[in-house]
Amino acid sequence: MPQRRCPRCRTTKLRLAPFRSRVDRLLEVLALYPVRCQLCGHRFRAWLGRYRKSQRRNYERVPVRCPAWFRLEREPEAQQPEHGTIANLSIRGCLIRTGRRLPLGTPVSLEFQPSPSTFPITIDCAIVRSHARAGLGLRFVNLLRSEERRIRRLVDLHLYNAPL
């Protein structure tokens, strides 16, 4: 069987997506499952031939180790940035290791440096979605297209081609 590719960006870095509608459930009978590209985010259906359970996340997170700084969205100029380390990253979110606990739903601005020889990547708005041991799970809400491209390149370097 040929390796599946994203129809938009032609990468093979795909992952099963959660069912969103009755149509998804009906097409499951024909072995057509929702799939999401891990680099461009395109969602489409593909014939997989046998049942596979969908994962909790839409995007695979890759392990990274980047210094990061974040601030609460309200009055960002008035406060000192908090320091942390990004432990894993996807095109839509990350886990930042920090001692600071923030309530779920708290908006923050985030900046992290993928390597010492590059400029920092800036995320204008991220939302605290989960608490992990000594860290915060963030979902990116607002970022510039150029920054999104840089994150995609970083994820592409670390993400393996996993067959569905």
CATH topology of the largest domain: Thrombin, subunit H
Kindly give the count of domains: 2
Name the helix and strand elements from N-terminus to C-terminus, one letter apiece: EHEEEEEEEEH
As laid out across the biggest beta sheet, the strand order is 4-5-6-9-8-7
Q: Could you please describe the fold and organization of this structure?
A:
With 164 residues, the protein is mostly beta strands. It folds into two domains: 1-58, no CATH class; 62-158, Thrombin, subunit H (Beta Barrel), CATH 2.40.10.220. 13% of the residues lie in helices and 39% in strands. The strands form two sheets. The chain has a six-stranded antiparallel barrel. Strand 7 (107-112) and strand 8 (121-132) form a beta hairpin. The model has no long low-confidence stretch (mean pLDDT 84).
Which features characterize this protein?
Thrombin, subunit H, 2 domains, 3-stranded antiparallel beta sheet
What is this entry, summarized?
The protein is mainly beta.
Question: Secondary-structure map with pairings?
Answer:
Layout: E1 14-16, H1 22-28, E2 32-37, E3 43-47, E4 62-72, E5 82-89, E6 93-97, E7 107-112, E8 121-132, E9 135-142, H2 145-158
Antiparallel strand pairs: 1-2, 2-3, 4-5, 4-7, 5-6, 6-9, 7-8, 8-9
